[in-house]
Amino acid sequence: MKQTKQRRVLSKLHVRMRFFFLLTATMLAVPLHATTVQRLSFDDLVSQANAIILGRVVASQSSWTKDGKLILTQTTFQVQEGLKGTSPKTLTVTTIGGQVGSTILHVSGMPAFAPGETAVIFLEKSGAYSTVLGLNQGKFSVANGAISNSVHGLSFSDDATAMPVTMPVEEFKRRIQQRLRQ
Hints:
About 25% of the residues lie in helices and about 40% in strands. The chain has helices at about 1-30, 40-50, 170-180, and strands spanning about 35, 50-65, 70-85, 90-95, 100, 105, 120-125, 130, 140-145, 145-150, 155, 165-170.
């Protein structure tokens, strides 16, 4: 009687272990390298943004949220030009993710900013925070007089493919202003 009960317990344990192994193997086999979002056109970015700035990164700091569940990164920009809305001389943009001590939180498709980087950023308000509209879709890096974007880490709900954009900064700014006048 005792052996039969032990066999049943071991059998149940064996089944649970196999289930756990299958579940773990399945989770590891599914690539989690993209965040699915709504694809935003250029017109969507311009019309939906509360503000659009051209700015340079002057500081960045990551910290835990008050509840200790997320790491947020606060990136401060020196605003070189406000392209939509009113912008102060400096502006802080909040993104989810970053590093605090040895803990790293990475969110695929979330824009990251490098010290000294210059970018055109399409911003939206999320509660008390200014965030980048459409994740990586709303960040256009500036280098050598041209803007370029990356949609790395994003997949789109309509299964469309977004193509990276590269053009002279002045042309990009002209298109934004043209769209705002419509």
